[in-house]
Sequence to fold (340 residues):
Amino acid sequence: MVLRQREQIRLGALYAVIAVTLLSMGLGIGALTWSPYAADHNGGFTVGFPSSLVLLSVGLLLIAIMVGTIVATVLYYRSKRVWMPQLASRLPAFAAANHLLFSRRDSNPEYPGTLFAVGNDRVALDHLRSTSGRYFDLGSYHFTVSAGSSAALLKWGFIAIQLDRRLPHMLMEATGHRGWANGGVPISIDRTQSISLEGDFDSYFTLYAPKDYESDARYVFAPDLMALLIDETTQMHVEIVDDWLFVYSSVDFDGASLEDYQRYFRIIEVVGAKTLRQTDRYEDDRLQQASVPAAERVVAADGRRLRNGRLSPFGRAMAPVYIAMAVVIVVIVVIANLAS
Fold:
């Protein structure tokens, strides 16, 4: 699918940028570390060390690599506009013909999904909402998150479907997209809340649920619903919170093809309907609510939200990079001291 091809290209570009950046930093640190030990009292260089011309050439090469990396990154993100479709320009007409509400831009969408509480400058773009029957919302969602001393713009796609009753907070993260830089859900979550699933479902999703709600989660995500999620939402994340079902894509929908939109509406119709049937009789047995109408029944406080993790999504994603940089620096310094 077009969406998956875009995701593979984006991840490949991201890994290439990280690799080239780390390589350039390592060579630069090496040149700066070795040069003091290479100089003698007469301003020359001892035997076995490069000349000043070589060091200058290495420095210029590193600058060229870094500039090339930056230029390639900028050109890549600018090239994403090539995906901007003729299809997006037809969304208003499509919405009118199908009795949907089209919105070009809405700030701070008020949904209880955890993704909608992350970062700043939150905005829903080019999204379609139902005007009758079961409520759903389908579109792109952009927001910024702190990335060290700067901010990063994240672009996601989302589907929101309203359910009939409140449920415990549950998150299904696609196993192929873990980590902030790899399309993982950019939220801080305590990973000890994971639940093992039957069969080979763990190879597709990791399910998180509040402590003591493991059986409730398995009741909701029964094998038939899980099989449907594997068929329809592979490489996407699924969240249930309060009386809402959310499907998140780490690639926004602004360049989606007709085939992609057909998939999104199939998720609404098929996955949404199955989730409604699966949760129709759910009740939190921890509360006595027999006299309360089903639509108004609530979940006990301990099950309403997952516990947060200790590290921020950016910190969790960048930890391996920081460790790799530290190892490179230590190795270079040790080698330089041995050479001296």
The beta strands are 100-107, 120-130, 136-147, 150-174, 194-195, 205-208, 237-249.
